[in-house]
Amino acid sequence: xxxxxxxxxxxxxxxxxxxxxxxxxxxxxxxxxxxxxxxxxxxxxxxxxxxxxxxxxxxxxxxxxxxxxxxxxxxxxxxxxxxxxxxxxxxxxxxxxxxxxxxxxxxxxxxxx
Amino acid sequence: xxxxxxxxxxxxxxxxxxxxxxxxxxxxxxxxxxxxxxxxxxxxxxxxxxxxxxxxxxxxxxxxxxxxxxxxxxxxxxxxxxxxxxxxxxxxxxxxxxxxxxxxxxxxxxxxxxxxxxxxxxxxxxxxxxxxxxxxxxxxxxxxxxxxxxxxxxxxxxxxxxxxxxxxxxxxxxxxxxxxxxxxxxxxxxxxxxxxxxxxxxxxxxxxxxxxxxxxxxxxxxxxxxxxxxxxxxxxxxxxxxxxxxxxxxxxxxxxxxxxxxxxxxxxxxxxxxxxxxxxxxxxxxxxxxxxxxxxxxxxxxxxxxxxxxxxxxxxxxxxxxxxxxxxxxxxxxxxxxxxxxxxxxxxxxxxxxxxxxxxxxxxxxxxxxxxxxxxxxxxxxxxxxxxxxxxxxxxxxxxxxxxxxxxxxxxxxxxxxxxxxxxxxxxxxxxxxxxxxxxxxxxxxxxxxxxxxxxxxxxxxxxxxxxxx
Lengths: 113, 470
Description:
The complex is a heterodimer of chains A (113) and B (470). Chain A is built from 6 helices and no strands. By secondary structure, chain A is mainly α. Residues 1-18 of chain A have low confidence and may be disordered. Chain B is mainly α and 470 residues long. Chain B has 20 helices and no strands. In chain B, helix 1 (6-22) packs antiparallel against helix 2 (26-42), helix 9 crosses helix 18 and helix 10 crosses helix 18. The model of chain B has no long low-confidence stretch (mean pLDDT 90). Chains A and B meet through helix 1, helix 2, helix 3, helix 4 and helix 6 of A and helix 1, helix 9, helix 10, helix 12 and helix 19 of B.
């Protein structure tokens, strides 16, 4: 009898029960920011990304669907990348890419010669 | 427009600017978000926007009519028509050609010469997700779980909100519509949101991409060319890839919604640490599994009609859940495996029951569930049923050679992806709390540097998310 009651209780709709848990729990939502601070974060983030990821900027610009914009933007992106290269800001990017290429080439054992 | 692209970053910058400028004007903010969401969706194909708008109109009108209907019978009729319209739309775009192809195969088996024509229409991205949103709303209004939505703008935004539009999570009307009734008094959780974006980017750009290109794609496309070790590792690899791909999208969707002032439900919770298949479905694609439970399993009778009906309902729910993923027999097989697994688990419950497991038994149970899930993934990932059979045949034989395809880097990424299943929640909470103490410009700088690092670690270009095609 208890088992039957439990089964029935499990399937009854509970309108007041929460449907599902929030992805970001309440404890982590107590501190926060305003929409203006979100905008500030986004602008600073894009600027810093443009500084350190300038090597990929021309290909990213090429991914924008508007062809009228792409040509001029790509020229600008290449100039920007040259400027970042002269400041040495592309070095971390190139070092990481080189490391990944090396890691991808790793094999379990050397070829017998 | 994929999340990890420059185009999306600029799009989000404009949306964030609009939210900052509009500040307390909540209705204007919602109108901007509807416009932005339709622009976002139009990037795939502008014609799909009419479909989305049509689906929203059907849901809105059905809600009004159900609310105004004088008796239960009329409410049921309106609900039935509205659900049929939604499912009809989904069926026409997603399943029509599948049923035609299956009917033609059957006709050939029966020796009939006439073949039915295909319509070959493009599958609109995210149609399964916004259809489920629409059905969720009208069913909740019918059940009295949510107040009818009087504001058309709210309905348009609920159906089209861009963070979840193309690959979920499936957000219930009862969960989201109240958030549109009045602006949230809570601050924007910028720290946890940013952390979710960065973790999601790493999972997608680095782990999912390299595991796919370095191991899973080549092995699954020619399984007969590889031995058992590569096949087994590619199965584990796909388990990691699909988790890192899909949960990354969910993480980013949750974070983007949070940055715009909205809450989303959790969609993943370390599913591969599950000790029961039932637990796996409480941790994997939670928004879909709870949707199937509440709008399919329970209406079928749930566990109220005795054991046999419970097993039937479980099987039917999982079969349809499999079919939801795609119009192919391999997805039905995947659903059948999970339905069968859940049924067997339910049958064994008197023995394995709800008793606490010993530490060793917990490890064994986790391994059993993980390998069962991996086995089912073979059907999910293989090109078709025949390839899945070849793959499983290869796993059962040919263990003499070592690893040909998988290098140490890819194996390390698979190990990292699996290790992430067993980290403590407290780790994320501590990092998010630390992030929350940093001023917004500092967070921007941190985000810029980390995104640049992730970009440098990842391959050039970003593959579409797996769940876009569902």
